[in-house]
Amino acid sequence: MSVFRNVVFIAAISGLLAGVILAALQTYSTDPLIFKAETYENAGGHDHAATPAQGTEATAPATTAQSTAPAVVAQVPAEEEAWAPADGFERFAYSALANIISGIAFGLILVAVSEFAGGIANWRQGVFWGFAGFAVFTLAPGLGLPPELPAMPAADLVSRQIWWISTVVATAAGLALIAFRKSLPLAILGVALIVAPHVIGAPQPESHDSPIPADLHHSFVVAVTISNLVFWVVLGAVAGFVRSRFMGEQPQALNGRLA
Questions:
Q1: What is the pTM of this model?
Q2: Distance (Å) of CA 134 to CA 65, 85, 127
Q3: 98 near 53, Cβ under 8 Å?
Q4: What pLDDT, in 10s, does the model give residues 129-149?
Q5: Which of 65, 96, 102, 106 has its CA 20 to 30 A from that of 135?
Q6: Which distant-in-sequence residues (6+ apart) come within 8 Å of 255 by Cβ?
């Protein structure tokens, strides 16, 4: 049972640090681009209810049902704007909290999977595991569904979620076959799994028309990609460093301790 406690502890420490660093990076890289995109959205007459989190896709705002009330009550005040944290420290605090929770969750996945493979012996191995996490959760899905700014068109949400999850699973399985199975046929199968979602193609909107300039979107995609790369490298490196201090550098595969 101590192994599971150690996994949770390592994930909590690494997720906390990586989440705070990601929130700081967002403040100076992606947030200004989101604010700039909101000016184009507002100028285009869109009703932006909330700012999308960095690295996620913007979804269309929910449409309210047409009023069936008689014309005499048409002067009812408009629906109040949805609550959103104030700019400045409050927004940073909520963003940091969300990133910390996400960091701990991703840390649990990273540490648990690595334990089945023998564990992360040190921070150097942790960096490689971080690169793997970046490839699985950011790079591969981002090739088909790049991060989107407010006012950008998007395909059906359920279809995008199905494609995103399928791509993550296929990429993780493909990398595992390539890295841990010393067999040419399995390596070929791994490459096929990685490529398959992109051959099928991600769901696309009916129209790509958007008030957002192409160079602004490009800058946002680059900023999101780099900030997530730093997040994953920090997550893996810290996980490896903390694990080596509490569990030693010797391999301690989790699958040998499940009985």
A1: 0.79
A2: 41, 29, 10
A3: yes
A4: 999 999 999 999 999 999 999
A5: 96
A6: 116
